[in-house]
Every structure is written in structure tokens, then in C-alpha cells.
Amino acid sequence: MNYFTDENDLNKFNNLSPDNPDNKKDQNTAGVLDIFVASIIRINKLAVLCVENAKKFIGYVIFMSILVSFMAFLVPSASRIFSFGGFSKLFREDFPTFSIEDGVLTADKKFEMKLNNAFLVINTDIDEFSIDDFDSSGVYMAFGKRNVKLVTYVDDESNKSYNEVYSYPIGMVLPSGLNNEVMANMTPLFYFTYIIIFFGYAIFAGVKYVFFALLYAFFTRTTTSISKLNLSMKDSVHLCFYAETISIILVNINEAVGYFIPSIFMTLASIIITVAVIMNAVKPHMPDIDEFMNRFGGNNKDN
Fold first, then answer.
1. CA separation for the pair 51, 40 (Å, rounded)
2. How distant is the alpha carbon of residue 266 from its chain centre?
3. Residue 206 confidence (pLDDT)
4. pLDDT tens-digit map of 87-127
């Protein structure tokens, strides 16, 4: 007896056949946004994603670094820049009329502007700024008549500190002939520098949070090492970085709004949140007591 079939019938049969383990598709199907969502609202899936999507770690670090730079630097700075109409309008209309000749800065009025978490201050009534010229904590770029300083100043109930990061004569920093019109014509350079600072901030944030993830991985290694997922130290670092997501967002939002919550309390809260996320991510994959003892030959029923 002869049997006949067609190609469509064969294709249907193949679709019902079990998968060949040697021909399985790559399991790395979760994207960066999937990991982001899991880090916030699907924490019990986080450890598995960490193991099955190891190749996505670098992409996630880049994503979080840019997100941090966007929240903590770009949004506050851009909103301030556009509030005064851009750099060109600032130098032509809002900035004091100034000029530099032979290393001496002259300006028709005092000026102070906050940009992100730093202050730009101009006061040509004094040759150079000193600690007595600052009355609130902050980072200052302070221009006197003959000197420019970058200063960090802290004055609170617990301590008071003053540090001059650098201090130079005006003539060493700014050229003679500089004035409002020259600065306005340099607007494209300021925006280019702004972009460079944005990416520099992102790189710094990425390195910082990877380092923190390494510390978390070290201190939680006792727990992650006994997981049924057999998390390596590398996997643990990935997991800890993902677990930092909520803390990273909260800390940088707090910074962007001007430290609504004091920095020390926000730091402590971020540590507690990150450790809690790590523990909850690993919890579904922890062995029970019998499995744990069997690993060390402590529950051998044959003896």
C-alpha cells in the first residue's frame, strides 16, 4: 500500500515534535527594559534574569548611567539654562556688562547664579574671595577683581569646612579682551562642553555604581553562593547592580529636587533597600534544609 503526504503535513508534524536540546534558541531573550522592570516590580524574577542574560549587563550599566546623568545633571541644568533663554541671551541681557583687560575683571554689578548644584558668583568689589564671603553651603565658582576660585564650602550644625580646589589670577584663566559679546559668540562651544559633561557624568555614575555592586556582592556572597542557581561571583555582581536600581532612582531624584531628604538618611535608606532587593531576588532559589545538608554529605540516608 502506498502512502502519500505533502510538505505542509510534514511541517505540521515537525511542529509537534519535541525540541532537540542541541538546537535550542538562545535563552537571552530579555532586554534591558525587561531587566529594569524586574528590578523594580518583579524582583523574584531578577536572579534568573541575571543568570540567563549575562550578556545584557554592560548594556544595562550604560542604560542606568545615562538615566542617572539625565535625572541628576541634564534635567536640572537644562531647565535652568532654558529659564534664562539660553547662553546667548544670558550673556547679552542677563549677565553683568563685563570685560577683562590686563588680568583685571570689571563688571557693572554683582552677580550670582545657581546651575545644578554649583554657584557662579561675580563680585569685582573685592580682589579675591575668602571664607567670610560665603554664607551658605555649596560649590562656588567665584570671580573677584583679580582672582578666580573653585571653592567647596560646608556650614551646618555638625561641622564647617572650606576648601579651595583651585585659585588662580584672572589673567591665567581668561584672556584679555573677553567681554559679553565674545562670550555670546562662543555659545556653540558651551553647548558642546555641556554634552561632554553629560557623558562624563554618566561614565562616573556607571563606575561608581558598579563598584558599589561589587561591595554588595562581596558582603552578600554567603547567601548568593548557596543559591540553587549556582551564582558565580560575576553573577552576584550583576544581580547586585540590578538590585541597586530602585536606590539609584530614589537617590538621584532626591538630589535633583535639592535634597528633600537629607543625604545621610537617603544613603542609609538606599543601602537597606538594595540589600532587601538582593535577599528577595535570591529567596525563591534558596535550597531547603535537606538540600543544603546533602551538599555537604550531612544528610546521607544510606549510612
1. 18
2. 15
3. 94
4. 888 888 888 899 999 889 999 889 888 776 678 899 999 99
- Report the b/e string of 108-136 with b at 16+ CB within 10 A: eeebeeeebeebebbbbeeebbeeebbee
Q: How far apart are CA 50 and CA 35, in angstroms?
A: 8
Q: What is the pTM of this model?
A: 0.71
Alpha carbon of 5 to those of 1, 2, 9, 11: distances in Å?
A: 13, 10, 6, 11
Residue 282 C-alpha cell reads as: 535570591
How many of the other CB atoms lie within 10 Å of CB of 43? Answer: 22
- Give CA–CA dist 209/9, Å, rounded: 55
Using DSSP's 3-state secondary structure scheme, residue 137 falls into coil
Q: How far apart are CA 131 and CA 126, in angstroms?
A: 13
Q: For the residues 253-276, what does the mean pLDDT come to?
A: 88
CA 27/CA 49 separation, integer angstroms: 10
Helix ranges (DSSP H) in 144-302:
170-173, 180-185, 187-219, 221-224, 233-243, 245-256, 263-282, 289-295
β-pair type (118-122, 147-155): unpaired
Q: Cell numbers 541575571 label which residue?
A: 50
* CA neighbor of 32 nearest in space, from 286, 241, 271: 241
| pLDDT surpasses 80 at 6 | no
Q: What are the two backbone dihedrals, phi and then psi, of residue 190, each rounded to the nearest 5 degrees?
A: -65, -40
| Largest distance between two CA atoms of the chain | 110
Angle between helices 32-41 and 57-69 (to 10 degrees): 70
